[in-house]
């Protein structure tokens, strides 16, 4: 399991990169796990009921693109080992557990990805804004970078050719190309601010705004009416974001694909203004570690990017293809549960009160996935009270859903459609 982690945007701006000057890069070449160059057309896309649609028309000519400013870069945390909690075991709460991430050994991945703005300059889509996601060549990123790029490409092509209607909660691939140095450039549709802002950006800015407002205007901050309106807008925004996230996950699971890299930096937003919540669209990106969970694929054995998942599945007692498939889906749900917890806490707290790693340690290590105990702990801290109130909606519906998604027994976690239709996510409690 690898999780995307956003890095600080780079200060330098790279404009007008000269790509395609005299280079014949019309064919997108990617290398498979054996290091052999593979054209995009060589991917086998006829799995299940989904067939290749000629209407996909990916743009592969680099001269059809104009590259704009560098937005930033991000890397990956590589979970190299994992020891899950055994179901039915009564874990005591040990104070020393705070600060220790016992369930996972985490290392920084070696692939650093750059993001650029850009636009299409030729053809029927001329003027369309794009977001470039750039994978380093083999010299800089090794074989893993090429495998990630190839997997992300094939996953997007597969998902975008599965239905006559595209899923609005997945970032749409429009094309891409390979440079002479071996870098893989994937171009995604970039409507409004898509790709510029992520769920992580929203949470950070929201938290900073709470801190700033309290410092600049303490009287208004403590005004019950003003405060109530502020957190009402925040709740609406987060719920709308969760609806988009789970809708994207439902679509992926329905088409036999896991995300496997779900986190705050893997969700892009078209707005971060809470007043624009009715128009918010959350889209999933970072499908480089997506896993095919069709039975035929599972029976073939693990690929280089899915070995860790299936190793953990066996450790959890999932041996046959059906059990492994169910474990994979439950693993995605667990990641989505941690993301849900992040969005329920970070935007509702002032800066420095809570961060993603501290929250994960609190939930996984200190309280061993007992969300009722987590609630009691948070109730005793006034700085976390708004997060508690949010999850308390509907007589604790948020805590109920979070507990189900983070159930130590993977067999008891809900599927994505059940999460999507839960009363906390539908917004009926607001």
From TrEMBL:
UniProt cross-references to InterPro entries, sorted A to Z: Kinase-like_dom_sf (IPR011009), Prot_kinase_dom (IPR000719)
Top-level taxon in the UniProt lineage: Eukaryota
Annotated GO CC locations: chloroplast
Transmembrane segments: none
GO-annotated molecular function: ATP binding; protein kinase activity
Protein kinase domain: residues covered: 100-425
Protein name per the record: Uncharacterized protein isoform X1
Species whose genome carries this gene: Spinacia oleracea
């Amino acid at each position: 399991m690898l999780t995307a982690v956003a890095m600080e945007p780079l200060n330098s701006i790279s404009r007008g990169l000269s790509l395609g000057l005299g280079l014949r890069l019309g064919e997108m070449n990617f290398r498979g796990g054996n290091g052999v160059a593979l054209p995009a057309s060589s991917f086998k896309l006829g799995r299940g009921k989904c067939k290749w649609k000629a209407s996909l028309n990916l743009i592969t000519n680099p001269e059809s693109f104009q590259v704009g400013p560098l937005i930033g870069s991000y890397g990956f945390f590589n979970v190299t080992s994992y020891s899950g909690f055994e179901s039915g075991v009564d874990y005591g709460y040990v104070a020393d557990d705070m600060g220790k991430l016992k369930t996972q050994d985490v290392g920084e991945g070696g692939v650093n990805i750059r993001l650029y703005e850009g636009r299409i300059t030729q053809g029927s889509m001329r003027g369309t804004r794009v977001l470039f996601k750039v994978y380093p060549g083999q010299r800089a990123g090794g074989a893993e970078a090429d495998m990630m790029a190839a997997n992300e490409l094939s996953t997007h092509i597969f998902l975008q050719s599965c239905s006559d209607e595209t899923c609005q909660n997945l970032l749409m691939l429009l094309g891409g190309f390979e440079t002479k140095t071996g870098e893989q450039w994937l171009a995604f549709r970039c409507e409004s601010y898509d790709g510029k802002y992520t769920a992580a950006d929203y949470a950070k800015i929201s938290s900073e705004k709470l801190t700033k407002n309290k410092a600049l205007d303490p009287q208004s901050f403590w005004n019950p009416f003003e405060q109530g309106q502020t957190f009402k807008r925040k709740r609406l925004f987060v719920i709308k974001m969760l609806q988009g996230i789970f809708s994207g996950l439902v679509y992926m699971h329905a088409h036999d694909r896991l995300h496997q890299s779900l986190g705050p930096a893997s969700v892009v937003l078209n707005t971060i203004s809470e007043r624009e919540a009715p128009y918010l669209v959350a889209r999933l990106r970072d499908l480089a570690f997506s896993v095919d969970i069709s039975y035929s694929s599972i029976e073939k054995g693990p690929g280089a990017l899915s070995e860790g998942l299936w190793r953990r599945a066996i450790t959890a007692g999932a041996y046959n293809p059906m059990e492994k498939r169910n474990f994979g889906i439950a693993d995605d749900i667990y990641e989505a549960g941690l993301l849900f917890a992040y969005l329920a806490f970070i935007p509702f707290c002032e800066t420095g009160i809570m961060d993603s790693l501290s929250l994960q340690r609190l939930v996984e290590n200190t309280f061993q996935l007992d969300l009722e105990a987590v609630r009691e702990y948070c109730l005793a801290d006034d700085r976390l009270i708004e997060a508690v109130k949010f999850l308390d909606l509907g007589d604790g519906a948020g805590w109920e859903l979070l507990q189900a998604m983070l159930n130590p027994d993977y067999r008891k976690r809900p599927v994505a459609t059940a999460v999507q239709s839960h009363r906390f996510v539908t917004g009926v409690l607001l």
